[in-house]
Amino acid sequence: MNPVDHPHGGGEGRAPIGRKKPTTPWGYPALGRRSRKRNKYSDNLILRRRNRMREEYLIKFVDVSYQETLMILELMPYRACYPIFKLIYSAAANAKHNMGLNEEYLVIIKATVNEGTTVKKLKPRARGRSYPIKRPTCHITIVLKDISLYEESVVENFISMGQKINPLGFRLGTTQGHHSLWFAQPKNYSKGLQEDQKIRDCIKNYVQKNMRISSGVEGIARIEIQKRIDLIQIIIHMGFPKLLVEGKPRRIEELQMNVQKELNYVNRKLNIAITRITKPYGHPNILAEFIAGQLRNRVSFRKAIKKAIELTEQADTKGIQVQIAGRIDGKEIARVEWIREGRVPLQTIRAKIDYCSYRVRTIYGVLGIKIWIFVGEE
């Protein structure tokens, strides 16, 4: 029998004249998707549309207050509103915490959207039928201004990412003071800095030569220098001053003579005083020297760090973090290892944190030691 004359319909899937959709031999419409060629510009068009849509949302909020913007974004039904809401909220929180600005006076003065990278992901489906997709992204920039501080002039407060900073310099004026106190004209400022460095190097070299201690710990926590017109006062904070003074009580006078010869002081008097630290292993410089001595003797770095942490616990500290970088244990590839015990709040300015970086030369190369010690809050 001809398949066209089949009693249940026909055509073997071929559509008769006047019908556009193909049918099955039983007369039902055939199911299936038509294949289409992929347009290479489609992804770019979609991304541009999304960027345009987000830009349209953001343009509405320029010169609008921060609190009014959040209220509008909460009620808008669009998908792009939630990431914009989070970004504006985060920018205002950073402005309040880092710069001390008042959220009530914050106004959005600039909002831009730029094309970002395209992220390749897998779309999850049932029974493991996931397929790769491309998720376009974009970069949104929000600039806020405090109108209470700058009413006449236009000043932009850019909220930027935080960077690594020395914990001692970050806390100058709050919980940390300067180790050198003197005044100089701008043209003589560099000479004063070099002079301070020579004084510190001379003292450390003298102590290293004349101090007899098996562990190799010099015990110098810090050296404070105060300069006047006719007097230079040097205060050495040491953890073990007896090891330097024992046997030769006139060693301080010898040290003064060495520093005067090194710097050729004629019109200035030099005065050196030594003060003892009650808990030496609560200071990072002394602790770093202890770890360096252990690493020179080929002790495992984990044992050295754990022993140092035990010593700091005896000094009543609230937290410590020790980091060692380089060819640890003689490995060919350099790496970074760190151990933290207790709390070390680096972002809290009122937290008093002592910090030091120390270099130690071993037979495998140079290792870097960094120590953060959380003493307490003020």
How would you classify the helix and strand content by structural class?
alpha+beta
For the largest sheet, list the strands in their spatial order: 3-4-5-6
Q: Distance N terminus to C terminus? A: 100 Å
| Helix/strand order, N-terminal first | HHHEEHEHEEHHEHHEEEE
Radius of gyration: 35 Å
Q: DSSP helix count? A: 9
Number-wise, the strands total 10
* Main beta sheet: 4 strands, mixed
The share of residues in extended strands comes to 25-35%
**Helical proportion, percent range:** 25-40%
The average pLDDT score comes to 78
Which of globular, elongated, flat, extended, rod-shaped describes the shape?
A: elongated
Low-confidence stretches: 40-47, 151-161
Layout of helices and strands, plus pairs?
Blueprint: H1 42-59, H2 66-75, H3 81-99, E1 106-123, E2 131-146, H4 167-170, E3 180-181, H5 189-210, E4 220-227, E5 231-238, H6 242-245, H7 251-263, E6 269-276, H8 284-296, H9 301-314, E7 319-326, E8 335-342, E9 351-362, E10 365-377
Parallel strand pairs: 3-4, 5-6
Antiparallel strand pairs: 1-2, 4-5, 7-8, 7-10, 9-10
Helix pairs in contact: 2-3, 5-7, 8-9
